[in-house]
Amino acid sequence: MVPLGDGSVFSEHSQPEDTQAGTDGEVVTKHTPVDLSPNEESLIREQLARHYAFLGEEGMAKLRDSFVVVVGAGGVGSWAALMLLRSGVQRLRIIDFDQVTLSSLNRHAAATRANVGIPKVEALKMSFAGIAPHAKVEARVSLFSADSAADLLSGEPDYVLDCIDNMDTKLDLLTYCKRNSIEVISAMGAGMKSDPSRVQIADIGDTFEDPMSRTVRRKLKKLGIESGIKVVYSTEKPGKVQLVSLAESQLDEPGDFSVLPDFRVRIVPVLGTMPAMFGIAMGTHVLTELASFPTEPLAIKGRHALYARMQRDLGNRETKVPAEHGGPQLQLSTDDCGYVLEEIWHGKSAISGATDKLALTRWKRSLPMATYNCICLTKTEADAHDKISGSPEDFYPAKTVEYIQRRFAEEKRLSQMR
């Protein structure tokens, strides 16, 4: 199973009962009234003063009039819900079947030692009451499924946030929203990630270099959905840490240590800040959408045009490679060029460290053009490099050669995860 964002292992005895309404019996919908006295309205406007200054009266009116459903109240969903509430959303439904554990405290927005053992949605609702007591928050202790979708997503939500950490359930949610014209944004895997600069927002059809996004994209395509779903994801490869296996004493009956049947039983290492970043990114996108505030997320941070240009330049260089060296040859796609530039060479020249006017070319002319034999240099450096008649190891300083060989060894490791 693809590692997801918020991993923990619980006993089957920790499963709460599904509820058909919030934990206090209240059902929140788009039309649930929010009654405020003049004094309360004055307090709220002061509390939201910076957002009124940013989004304006009309934008804030839309935001405060909205109804949002957050499915999954773990490290990602809890932060998304928290920031939507703090930003002015007054009608929230939060759905999760799980309970707060001690391991939740490194990433959950509201978890404390005092509420270990209670449902995560209830922990959020209690915390929210101290921030925005006027808000209508429905805490639904329930497991999302295709069968429960119509009920759990009822009430005319303006937006749904998918913060689920199970692949099949995630696909059920996204498929239901897409086919019922419900706006949805989905979180991909925040677990096993540590680089905040790699977090992106893009259409699922534009994602790249992320194993989970690729899996979701392929499965949705089989269901007839190729685009139209925004996702928060990271291009960082998750290979620096590994899934934590069950203890030896648990191996005989691994199913006993899964939260539910078909849920993973290994623990995903999570750096607590990363789920929060995913959740806050989701919340930011949703609140600007609800307030009709213009934002245009740049897929892959707008660098796809750069990768296409570098691919064209590489093709031109390949025309100059003699036939005895396998030229001309260009089997690298635009995404391959992006992978080589960003993942292998970190967006800079392997020789000088320069980041401007970059080009890709073969490291060794005698070897085929491939990701394991493609180096990033400035155009001037690449022109000089292409004229080397012997082995490049004899041309460059030993320290530079050692660095380049180390990066190619990293490419060999990373290529196994593509």
Structural class: alpha/beta
Counting H and I runs of at least 4 residues, what is the number of helices? Answer: 12
Q: Report strand %.
A: 5-15%
The largest β sheet comes out as: 7 strands, mixed
Helix content: 25-40%
What is the typical, i.e. mean, pLDDT?
A: 87
Q: How many beta-strand segments?
A: 9
Radius of gyration: 25 Å
Low-confidence stretches: 7-17, 248-265
The backbone outline, from C-alpha atoms, is elongated
Write out the strand line-up for the largest beta sheet, numbering strands in chain order: 3-2-1-4-5-7-6
Question: Span between N and C termini?
Answer: 15 Å
- Written as H for each helix and E for each strand, in order along the chain, the element string is HHEHEHEHEHEEHEHHHEEHH
Task: Walk me through the structure.
- The protein has twelve helices and nine strands.
- A seven-stranded mixed β-sheet has the order 3-2-1-4-5-7-6, sandwiched between helices. Strands 8-9 form a two-stranded antiparallel ribbon.
- Strand 1, helix 3 and strand 2 (91-96) form a beta-alpha-beta unit.
- It is 35% helix and 11% strand.
- By secondary structure, the protein is α/β, with parallel strands linked by helices.
Describe the protein's topology.
Layout: H1 38-47, H2 49-64, E1 67-71, H3 75-87, E2 91-96, H4 120-129, E3 136-141, H5 149-152, E4 159-162, H6 167-179, E5 184-187, E6 199-203, H7 211-222, E7 230-234, H8 273-290, H9 304-318, H10 334-344, E8 358-362, E9 374-378, H11 379-385, H12 398-415
Parallel strand pairs: 1-2, 1-4, 2-3, 4-5, 5-7
Antiparallel strand pairs: 6-7, 8-9
